[in-house]
Amino acid sequence: MNKIFAANWKMYLNEEESLDFVSKMFLNKSLFLSKEIMIFPSHTAISSVKNALKNMSNVKVGMQDCDIEMGGAVTGSNSISSISVDSCIIGHSERRIIFKEDEKIIKQKLENSLKTVESTILCVGETLNEKKQNETFNVIDKQLSILPRSLNEKKLIIAYEPVWAIGTGLVPSSDYIGEVLSYINNAIKSLYSNQMLNEVNLFYGGSVDENSVESLSAIPLLDGFLIGSASADFKKFENILKKMRWYDSIFNNDTYNN
Ligand code: PEP
After folding, report:
1. Measured distance CA(153)–CA(204) in Å, rounded
2. Is 43 a residue of the active site?
3. Which of 45-49, 130-134, 150-154, 189-193 has the lowest mean pLDDT?
4. Per DSSP, what are the bridge partners of residue 87?
5. Which of 53-57, 126-130, 189-193, 243-247 has the lowest mean pLDDT?
6. pLDDT value at position 79?
7. Percent of the chain residues past pLDDT 70, beyond the cut
8. pTM, two decimal places
9. Contact residues for 193 (Cβ-Cβ < 8 A; gap 6+)
10. Which of 65, 130, 124 is nearest to 93 (CA)?
11. Which residues are within 8 A (CB) of 170 and not within 5 positions of it... i.e. 6 or more apart?
């Protein structure tokens, strides 16, 4: 299966820079049209990015986070229904650590997102300390314990993002990622019917770049990537997709049009 590329632009790009990025995508339209892409701009740029991308229907646009409330007196925050989007990221480690979001908060956000948008990305992953103490699977269990019993035909993406790999340049070995994805896969298999499992994808995120993307693509069970800093730099993101076009032409029998 061809991989899905989710670009988490965090707070890297303002509205003008986001639009500049999108206009560069149109300069290499055949590449960007050939891949399944999800872009998560800053909230302030969502509307203009969506509008600029309306002729690239393969590119979905989402929110980086949403509030636990669906609306009301919450100054400065944004509910999942505050703007029309295709997707939302929930439980990113920066939200868990900087904003002290616990499982209760993330569960509420997950519910809001799953009932509102087409696909939801739930981020899970251990810190370096937890890894050193062999706590990885316990952490994953706790983070997955908030999953609902039914997905109501909405898509759920579970992104395994070890906190120690985010923004550090450290990428775990493919075997390590494969082992954790297989653990996650078994956990969701025990929760969902085969039909619902068709709606679940597994991603990896943490320092993915043009040098690591090809070898990571060979990991069994991996459906896509959640990419942070390299996704907000146009050249780096373009190079990741170019590498993958080459990879897909060899391993997935895609036509390679340059
Ligand atoms: C992320 O924050 O989701 C992420 C994967 O970041 P980076 O690619 O910069 O490590």
Report:
1. 23
2. no
3. 150-154
4. 62, 119
5. 243-247
6. 98
7. 98
8. 0.96
9. none
10. 124
11. 164, 206, 207
Asked whether the beta carbons of 115 and 152 are under 8 A apart, the reply is: yes
Condensed to tens digits (0 to 9), the pLDDT of residues 59-91 reads: 999 999 999 999 999 999 999 999 999 999 999
Number of the ligand 1 atom closest to the C-alpha atom of 159: 3
Nearest CA to ligand 1 atom 3: 228
Contact yes or no for 158/195 (Cβ under 8 A): no
For the chain, the straight-line distance linking the first and the last C-alpha, in angstroms and rounded, comes to 21
CA distance 27 to 48: 18
Q: How far is the CA of 210 from the centre of ligand 1 (A)?
A: 14
Alpha carbon 106 to its chain centroid, in Å, reads 16
Q: 161, 203, 216: which to mutate for ligand 1, most atoms within 8 A of CB?
A: 161
92 as an active site residue: the answer is yes
In this structure, the residue with its CA closest to atom 1 of ligand 1 is 228
Dist. CA 228 → ligand 1 center (Å):
4
Ligand 1 centre and the CA of 4: distance in Å? 15
Enter the tokens of residue 196: 């619902």
CB of 8 shorter than 6 A to ligand 1: yes
Which residue lies with its CA nearest to atom 2 of ligand 1?
228
